[in-house]
Design goal:
It is a single chain. The protein has 1155 residues and is an all-alpha fold. It has a two-stranded antiparallel sheet with strand order 1-2. Strand 1 and strand 2 form a beta hairpin.
């Protein structure tokens, strides 16, 4: 292969050199002044394209493409795709790139700048080459030989091998090149191409090329880089394009496809997978005509009413043609017509809202308007009223036309044509949603029965992508239509049953089904329940009762699971119903049926998990049931599920692993909910014994040498419920009960700690790798037990003790509550201290200890409890010391979180104040020591792991105790060392690729600026003021230079992630309001004038004017955020086109010029 084809070949194969060459050639120009020094030339994409086209033509003229393995389809597709990107670049931008090339080359070739004629000659040569290439591409796309109908004969293919230019994908891309070049050149070029070439020569041009170009013109005209005035030209060309080009071609292509029949549809489907288009050129032409109509309607905001009006002066019934296209069996056509109908109805709906607004205005204001204005309003009402009549008429026609497709839907479903069924369902759904108001108020001029029948046929389709469309549409109508809801429910219940063939799925289909069931089906069930709640509950109750009594079969567990799923789906709404008589009656029936089943069917892991979730969701309702033993029966079902040996169900593991459902987890959640809903029910000795056995089961299994099957998350959930039961007891029993709950944890901690010490001592002589391998499981075990202890502390602190206030004094209850927790912590302290000193460098240990300490902070309630706070923070110091010494950044993270909560709770005591007492000073010293220890851990290396929590901690300081933060520094270091270092790091972290780091930095800077704005230095003592003033000045200087440059650049040139844009905009707003324009003008101007800003000079002036206005007022308008958001959006482009001077930028400048 020659150079051009060789480069394309390497790029197709993923070679980095080939890809890099193409990317650079498409983006820049280089100067060749060495080959012919007296006649230097530039080389860019147009040169490469010219050479590549020559090489393709030469290659094919030699007949070397006859073999399938030697065809150039992929090469030409890639060539056309990149050429389309480059064609989006206006000629003026091309000239600027050439100018940049010459300017760069002038360093070694000074004569280039001195010779103005030579520079102009090079610019002109490049323009001429671009025009010549465009002429060649136009000749290719308008060449009928590249649009011939393939005979399909292998012999004819050998005699007349197909050119790569005939490839449908490449041909459409080349049509896109012609369109992109016309649009980027300007509105005059668009009008010239359409009015002077395509419309007059419509009869002598290939229809497929014409409709492809017309489609791409409209698409390009909606782009960000569309030159100003293009949209006006597009609107002015609509009548001629529709009536003279697209309409006739659509009618002819539909007629020709009917004459040939749809026998090629299957061939087309197979061929399209390899060639991208299929053999039936009429189908592709009709589909592209429909796509072109849709694109032009989008570009000009045209709905069905306006579309029919445009064609009213011709003999083309465009809506009838669109309806005829629905009868095609070609996916490419049916998909295009579905998109077109959706677009037309969307714009009609928007116009209908305008009509409604004018009608309301007329009824409200008609009597208070001057005669002239009143007449204008009346005329507007008449015009919009006629449009509304037309919309109703068109919707009625569409309802009838789409409804007739129900017969063909069944036919295509029987043939396995899912694609056509999906498109028909999508069209029917859109038509139903747009006509629902007309159906409700009875103004629809046709019966919707056929349309509904089609959607119900779609609802029974085996593909979730088809039935899901129907369910989404029907669920909108169902809440207000009990008859439709009743009809819909059996379809939903049937789809809730996991298809048996998916149970052993390995290709992801089960995951798709689960996602469908959890989202689409759940929403539909909720809508159906809203429309017929009583029937819904009775139907599900009967189903559960029936399945629990049925003889076992392979399908039965999945049927019962589906019935439980249907109840779970509506649990949120059903449990909040004021009148629970029907619900409670059905719940009693369901629980009784599940209990009678005796786990013959409910022993299946999937059913067991769903049963526990069902009980979890309705736990609060069981207390309202008239039958007193319902709650007890439900509790027995859950406890039995919890205690069942899971080993016997390993054969069902495949049915639960994909869904990530654990019966044990669900049982834990259900048990917690039952315990919290009615803890008194579990205060009996038998119930408490059952709970104790469940709680101690992991330790019992481990003592017996068995692996614990209960995850730590499930044990934490169960812990929450156990604490609720303890709190329901008399407060005098809390200390003993909490000790009993924690006793297995503390015993396990002591045993495992000794084991860890033994292993680490014994492995001292071994290598680090072997030692880590031996210690890791023990560290995980230690971490889990500390984490569980932290959960006990958290849950008992959060438990509602107010129920005991009526029986005992408030002070007594609070004292018992605190004493129980303090006693537990004191018992665990020696072991925790030992673990912190020796093992806190392990991330899992640090995380668990950090959780325990963070949870314990809430125990400090008054100044009398300072010793307890000193103990808690003392363990934090020990832990931090070990972490800093080990230089383990991940282990530092939980203690930064601990610091956040500590400062949040005690910020007012930490902040320096003349009224501070000895206790405040003690807490302040603790905070200073902890902060400096943390700072020592991150001072030399702010890794990505610690950056976000570090800035979150600083943010809390800036909000709660800003003066403390401003003067915080190590001994012998100047005041403000910590904050200075943080501010220096902020511009870099604002550019991070990690979103959480950026967000944390933004929060810190915003809190810091807000605090600086609120601090009054005059109120401080002289010594404090002298220490803080230089720090504040330093911070202000950094914020008003590096920080604001980084923030404005990231937001306004589209560099920041979308999730960061709003917080970043708020930060910019706060800095502007905090600053004088003279202080930040140079920085903001530098950010806006950076090389990445692509919106042009007018947009720069508008942005700077609005920024200046923000600094001169005490508040900013909503337009400030919208302006930055618009600038960010306009920079989100992946092509090489220019944004400056385009429609979007002109609209931007006009919108914000007067804001």
């Amino acid at each position: 292969m020659s150079h051009g084809l060789s480069v394309l070949d390497h790029a197709i194969r993923g070679d980095r050199g080939g890809l890099s060459f193409l990317e650079q050639t498409a983006s820049i120009y280089v100067l060749d002044a060495a080959t012919t020094p007296s006649h230097p030339t530039t080389y860019g994409w147009w040169n490469f394209l010219n050479d590549a086209l020559n090489e393709v033509e030469r290659y094919e003229s030699e007949g070397r493409h006859a073999s399938t393995s030697n065809n150039l389809d992929g090469h030409v597709r890639l060539l056309a795709t990149i050429t389309r990107r480059v064609a989006r670049r206006p000629p003026a931008s091309d000239r600027r790139l050439v100018g940049t090339c010459l300017a760069n080359a002038s360093m070694s070739h000074m004569n280039l700048l001195a010779n103005a004629d030579m520079a102009q000659s090079l610019l002109g040569n490049n323009d001429e080459l671009r025009e010549r290439n465009m002429g060649r591409i136009a000749a290719i796309v308008f060449d009928f030989s590249f649009h011939r109908k393939n005979s399909g004969s292998a012999r004819s293919m050998m005699q007349y091998p197909r050119s790569a230019f005939s490839d449908p994908v490449a041909m459409e891309q080349f049509c896109g090149v012609v369109a992109a070049n016309a649009v980027s050149t300007g509105p005059v070029a668009v009008r010239h191409l359409v009015s002077d070439w395509i419309v007059p020569g419509i009869d002598s041009l290939p229809p497929l090329a014409v409709v492809a170009i017309m489609s791409h013109i409209a698409v390009e005209a909606m782009g960000k880089g569309c030159p100003g005035g293009t949209k006006d030209v597009i609107r002015s060309l609509v009548p001629s394009v529709f009536t003279c080009v697209l309409g006739p071609i659509l009618i002819d292509s539909l007629r020709e496809s009917d004459e040939r029949g749809d026998n090629d549809a299957m061939i087309e489907a197979v061929s399209s997978s390899t060639t991208g288009g299929g053999n039936n050129i009429e189908h592709r032409t009709a589909a592209l005509a429909l796509r072109a109509l849709e694109s032009w309607c989008k570009a000009s905001s045209i709905g069905a009413v306006k579309l029919r009006s445009i064609f009213s002066s011709t003999n083309v019934n465009i809506l009838e043609a669109i309806a005829d296209a629905l009868y095609s069996n070609a996916e490419v056509m049916i998909d295009a017509v579905s998109d077109l109908i959706e677009t037309l109805l969307r714009y009609d709906a928007r116009d209908a809202n305008v009509t409604l607004g004018i009608s309301i205005a007329g009824s409200v204001m008609s009597n208070c308007l001057p005669p002239g204005v009143a007449n204008q309003l009346l005329f507007a009402q008449q015009v919009t009223g006629e449009s509304e009549k037309s919309r109703v008429s068109i919707l009625s026609e569409l309802v009838s036309a789409v409804g007739l497709q129900r017969f063909r839907f069944a036919e295509r479903q029987s043939n396995g044509d899912t694609a056509v069924c999906r498109c028909l369902a999508r069209t029917a759904a859109k038509v139903l949603l747009e006509s629902q108001d007309l159906i409700k108020n009875g103004t629809l001029q046709a019966s919707p029965d056929g349309l509904l029948d089609l959607l119900f046929k779609a609802a029974s389709h085996p593909s979730v992508y088809v039935c899901g469309i129907a369910f989404e549409a029907l669920s909108v109508i169902a809440p207000s239509n009990s008859e439709l809801s009743t009809r819909l429910l059996p379809y939903l219940q049937g789809k809730a049953i996991i298809p048996f063939h998916l149970i052993r799925d390995v290709d992801g289909s089960l995951d798709d089904y689960v996602n469908f069931r959890e989202r689409v089906l759940t929403d539909a069930l909720i809508a159906c329940y809203t429309g017929c709640s009583t029937f819904y509950l009775e139907s599900c109750g009967s189903a559960i009762d029936e399945f629990c009594q049925a003889s076992p079969s392979p399908h039965l567990p999945y049927q019962l699971e589906a019935a439980l799923f249907c109840m779970i789906a509506v649990s949120k709404g059903a449990s909040k119903t004021p009148d629970k008589q029907v619900l409670c009656g059905q719940l009693e029936k369901m629980i009784a049926a599940l209990a009678k089943n005796s786990f013959s069917t409910t022993s299946h892991p999937l059913v067991m998990a769903k049963m526990c979730r069902f009980i979890n969701n309705y736990a609060i309702c069981f207390t309202s049931c008239q039958t007193k033993n319902v709650f007890e029966t439900a509790s027995e079902l859950v406890i039995t599920s919890f205690n069942r040996d899971m080993d016997q169900d390993n054969k069902h593991a495949h049915s639960t692993s994909t869904n990530d459902i654990s019966p044990l987890s669900e049982a834990s959640n259900a048990l917690k909910q039952l315990l919290c809903s009615s803890p008194a029910q579990f205060s009996t000795p038998a119930a408490r014994s059952a709970l104790e056995n469940a709680w101690k089961m992991p330790y019992t299994r481990q003592q017996n040498g068995m692996c614990s099957v209960i995850a730590i998350e499930d044990r934490e959930v169960l812990c929450s419920g156990m604490c609720a039961v303890i709190v329901s007891l008399p407060s005098e029993q809390w200390l003993a009960s909490l000790d009993a709950l924690a006793q297995p944890i503390l015993s396990c901690l002591n045993v495992v700690t000794k084991e860890a010490d033994r292993v680490t001592i014994g492995a001292g002589a071994a290598g680090a790798g072997q030692r880590g391998h031996d210690v890791a499981p023990i560290m995980n075990r230690l971490s889990n037990e500390i984490r569980l202890l932290a959960a006990v502390v958290r849950c008992f602190i959060q438990a509602d003790v107010s129920q005991n206030f009526s029986m005992e004094s408030r002070a007594k209850v609070i004292a018992h509550h605190r004493n129980a927790l303090v006693s537990l912590l004191h018992k665990s302290w020696p072991c925790q201290t030992h673990i912190a000193k020796k093992y806190c460098s392990h991330e899992v240990i640090a995380t668990s200890i950090g959780q325990l300490l963070t949870n314990s902070l809430s125990l400090y309630g008054s100044e009398m409890e300072l010793p307890l706070l000193i103990e808690i923070t003392g363990l934090a110091k020990i832990s931090l010391s070990a972490v800093v010494k080990a230089k383990s950044p991940p282990s530092l993270v939980p203690f930064l979180s601990f610091m956040q909560k500590f400062i949040h709770l005690h910020g007012s005591k930490i902040e320096p104040n003349p009224r501070n007492n000895a206790i405040h000073e003690a807490i302040q010293n603790v905070a200073k020591n902890l902060m400096l220890m943390s700072y020592e851990g991150v001072r030399n290396d702010v890794t990505q792991v610690v950056a976000s929590p570090m800035f979150d901690t600083l943010s809390t300081c800036a909000k709660q105790c800003p003066i403390f933060l401003l003067i915080l520094s190590r001994d012998s270091q100047p005041d403000g060392e910590v904050i200075r270092s943080s501010i220096e790091a902020a511009p870099m972290t604002l550019k991070s690729n990690e979103m959480d780091i950026v967000l944390s930095t933004v929060r810190f800077l915003k809190e810091l600026v807000s605090s600086l704005a609120s601090i009054s230095l005059e109120t401080l003592q002289e010594g404090q003021r002298q220490a803080i003033e230089p720090v504040v000045e330093n911070i202000k200087r950094a914020i008003q230079t590096d920080v604001i440059i980084t923030a404005v650049t990231s937001a306004c040139v589209g560099m920041s992630p979308p999730e960061v844009l709003e917080p970043l905009t708020n930060l910019i707003r706060v800095i502007f309001m905090f600053s004088q324009w003279s202080d930040i003008e140079a920085s903001v101007s530098a950010a806006i004038n950076c090389g990445q800003f692509q919106l042009g000079d007018e947009a720069k002036l508008v942005a700077l004017k609005n920024f200046k206005k923000c600094t001169m007022s005490e508040y900013t308008t909503a337009n400030f955020g919208n302006m930055i958001s618009d600038m960010w959006s306009m920079h989100q482009t992946d092509d090489t086109g220019s944004i400056a001077g385009g429609e979007a930028v002109l609209e931007f400048a006009q919108r914000y010029k007067t804001s």
